[in-house]
Amino acid sequence: MVLSEAVLADPVALTRALCDIPSVSWNEAEICDAVEAALKPLGHLTTERVGNTLIARTELGRDKRVMLAGHLDTVPVNDNFPTRTEGDVMWGLGTSDMKSGTALALWIAATVTDPKFDLSFAFYDCEEIEAEHNGLNKLAKTRPELLAADFAILLEPTYGLVEAGCQGTMRARVTLRGKRAHSARSWKGENAIHRAAPVLERLNAYEAREVEVNGCAYHEGLNAVFIDGGVAGNVIPDECRVEVNYRFAPDRDEAAAEAHVREVFDGFEVEITDSAPSCRPGLDRPEAAEFVAAAGGEFRAKLGWTDVARFATLGIPAVNFGPGDPNLAHKQDERVEIPRILSCADALRAYVEAP
Amino acid sequence: MVLSEAVLADPVALTRALCDIPSVSWNEAEICDAVEAALKPLGHLTTERVGNTLIARTELGRDKRVMLAGHLDTVPVNDNFPTRTEGDVMWGLGTSDMKSGTALALWIAATVTDPKFDLSFAFYDCEEIEAEHNGLNKLAKTRPELLAADFAILLEPTYGLVEAGCQGTMRARVTLRGKRAHSARSWKGENAIHRAAPVLERLNAYEAREVEVNGCAYHEGLNAVFIDGGVAGNVIPDECRVEVNYRFAPDRDEAAAEAHVREVFDGFEVEITDSAPSCRPGLDRPEAAEFVAAAGGEFRAKLGWTDVARFATLGIPAVNFGPGDPNLAHKQDERVEIPRILSCADALRAYVEAP
User: Fold this and answer.
1) I need a labelling partner for A293 at 20 to 30 A (CA). Which of A318, A338, B60, B241 fits?
2) Looking at the predicted structure, is the pLDDT value of residue A354 above 80?
3) What is the pTM assigned to this prediction?
4) How far apart (Å, rounded) are the C-alpha atoms in residues A152 and A18?
5) Is A183 close to B221, i.e. CB distance below 8 A?
C-alpha cells in the first residue's frame, strides 16, 4: 500500500488508509513499511526504523522539541474491517484506537516542513499486548535519545480534549498466614482468611487523596481487586491473599507510592507485584500551555494509565489528545466522527506551525 | 476367594483375608461375594444383598436390636497391597480404614449365634467416594427398614476408644455484591471485596459453643474455608464470596444449624450449599451404656463427621468404635496393631454375648 501525496495531505483520507492496512499486534510490518516509504524521501525529516517502529525527526535547530506519537497496531479484527463511512462517521477497527490519532501525527510529519518547534514522530508497534513488547517501551529502554523532547503529545483517543499526564498504577499483594487444621477441630488451626478482616477494614476506612498538579485534578484510589484463600471445604486455611491496586497522582513517583502502600498496610506482609509510573502533566511548561491554548483551552487530568508514562520515565511531560472516543476503544462498533478528526487536525496544525 | 470357617473364627486372619481382596471403591463385587458366601449358609442369619451391600440379621425376637456396620471399599492402592505382617503389626491398604473393623463385624456375625440382642450387620460399598454412591446412604433412603435398630456401632477406626455421635457439618456461602468500575475511577464503583470486612469481623468475634450431650463434650466451630473475588487487576470487583463451614454439636439438627448461621450473618446474602446432620451419642440408652462398659468405660465425643449420621437420620443413636488408628487412614503406611484388633474383638464379644 502506497500512501499518495494526496492521501498524506488529507487527515480523513489518511485515517481511512491506515485503518485499511491490517495491523493487529505482531503484524505491523506492512503499515510500518507504508509509513517509512511516505516519510523517508522527505527532505525536512530524518528517519530511523527499529523493528516495526519508525522514528522521524526534524533537525532545524529550534529551541524546543515536541514529540507526536501513536501506535500502529490494533486489537484483533472483530468483523469490523475494513472501514466503511456513513455520512460524518467512519466505522471500523482502529478508527478510534488509534489510527485517527496516528494519522494526524503522520499528516503533520508529511506536510509541516517549517514547524515552530523541532518535531519528533514515533510510530510504534505492539501497544495492545504485554508491555514488554511495546515498541515505545522498548525504545525508551534501549534508544532513549530517539525519544528526546521537551514535551510529548500521545494521540490516544480523548475525544478532542487535552488529557494531561496520567496517574500511576501499582499492584501489591497482602498475604495473611495461618495454620491448617481439620475444620472439625478448628481451634487447633489459625484461620488466615479471618485475618484479612483488618486489611479490608483499612481499605474501607481509606480516604483517597485528591491532588491538583498544574491545574489538573487527580483522584487517587486504593482498592482490593482480588482476594482468594482456602484449601478444602473441611480445612482451616493457612493462607489468604488480597491484591490491591493503588492509582496514584503524578506528584508521587513509584518509590513514594510503594512507601504509601506499605504504610497503609503496616504490620502486614506486603509484596509489590506490578508497577507503572505516573506522568506529570507538565502544563507549567510554555510549549505545553501553548498546546492547550491551541486545542481550545480546556484540559483535564488523565486518570487512567497510558503510554504517556513512557515519556515520564525519560523526564518528558506528556498529554493525551486524539479525535477518537475512548469509550469505543476495543469495541466491535468502533468509529470516529470525521468533524472531530478535522478539529483536532486544526488544533495540532495551529500549534506546530510558525505564527 | 473363599473365607474358610477357620478364617471366619479368627479376627486377625479375617482382617488379613479381607485386606487381601482388592476392593477400591466401585470394585466391591468380589469382596461382597465373599461376605455373602460366608453368611448366607448360616442358620441364625437372614441375608439380603442390594448391589454390593450385604445386610445380615438375626431374627431371635430379642427386645433390642443392635447394628454393626462397616464399609467394604478402600481408597486407591498406593503401593501398599497386599498386606504384610511384621511382629504385632499388620501393614497394608485397608488395615486401619476399615477392614480391621469390618472384619470384627463379620466375625461376630459368623460366630455369635445366640446374642443378647438381635443383631443386624451392614457391609456396604462406596464409602470413600461421593456421598451419593455410598451404599449405607442409599439404603437409608430406599430401604430404611433394613437398617432398623435401637443402637448402631460403626466400626470406623477410633483406636479402640468409643467415639460417640458426631458433629454435623454445614457449608454456607455469604455473597457480597458491588458495582464494577475501572480502578482508575474507583469511586464510580462499589467494592464487593471491601464489603466482606464485617463478615470476617463476625467470624473473628464468633465464640464457638462447647456443649455436653450424654456426657460427651462437643466443640463447635464456624470458619471461613474459602474466599474469592475479583474480575481483573484494573476493575473494582462486583462480587465476593465467603464460604463458611459450621460444625455443630448433636443438640442441634440441620434446621437449627441453618437458623444459627443465618442469624450470625444477619443482613447478608446467605445460601446453604451443603449440609450433613449431626448424630446424638445416645449414651443415655441402656444398650449404648452397656457397650461403653464392655469397651472399657471410656468414651469421648466424635467431632469429625462420619457415617454414624446416616443412622441418626433414621433416629438411631450410634457410636464409632474400631481398632485402627484414624490418623493412618488414607496413608501409604496404613497399618493396624494386632493386639488392638484382639482387644476390640473381646469388647464386642463381651457386649453381644448372653451373660
Assistant:
1) A338
2) no
3) 0.83
4) 22
5) yes
